[in-house]
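Before drawing any conclusions, I needed to go through one protein's amino acid sequence and its backbone structure tokens, quoted below without any editing.
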Amino acid sequence: MRIAVVQMQSADHDIDGNLKRATAFAEKAAVQGARLVVFPEFMATGSYLSFDTWDSAEPSRGKTVAWLKSTSKRLSIWLGTSFLEADGTDFYDTFVLTTSQGEEAGRVRKQVPAGPEAYFFRGEAGSHVIDTAIGKIGVGICAENYYCFIASQMIQQSADLILMPHASPDMSEGGGLPTPPGTHLASWYAGKLGIPAVMVNKVGRSYKPPPNEIKGFFPGRSAIVDSDGTVRQSMDDKEGLGIGDITLDPSRKTSKSEVCSGVGIAELAVGGSAGAAAVAKAEAEARKSYESNPVRKTKALAISSGQRDARTSNK
């Protein structure tokens, strides 16, 4: 199967503009024979998370989902990306996969917000494997891939490949943590599980990461690694399209019942135990703020119920 990763920038508060740019990449991938095209996490939403990001959230079947369906059908390709979903009084980081017929194959909500991300959306436990006509497609959204539960679910539900959409900035310029290369992450999964691993990340600046404005940039480093560990694509930090042919071969899948234990995957740890502790502390603090924030509840309900769109159309 030919896979394409779209390593692109995302402009803040410009869903229409981001989707328009994504369309050009999808068309190019289709011309090159890609059957499945994967975009970064929050491709249409923007490049950072801050309180005004809630204004870029969408209802469960908003612009991004409509774009995925219509573009998939027009180009006869499978497409996937995540968006900031408003559902009831909550926000979620939701990945949606659409079929080449333009139907929704399934969706996955991010289970573990990465540290301060918990200020802005709720995590939700659930299956991270979508059963489709082209195989069982696993989905690990950004930082989730560093937790054992993702690798374990891929084994338990016999995933045929795993997609890893990222919006992962390198924060080392501001004294924060760096982002590991995508090839390293994808190679670990392919080697341990015996399935293709597809990691795609954004490029460009991250101007306002939470909770305070600090320096950051998206390093790209997207990668496609085949089920036998062969690196089919390893990208740099420039915007562009990556193509790779992967093999779905059940005989290559691991026979092990587990490939890691505990909470985090030690070989993929960012910042060691101290970094893991810092992320966990930030997440716990952020979750408390999110739960008690009345603005969050009001905005999410307005968007999910369509009240915001109605107000906008009446202006």
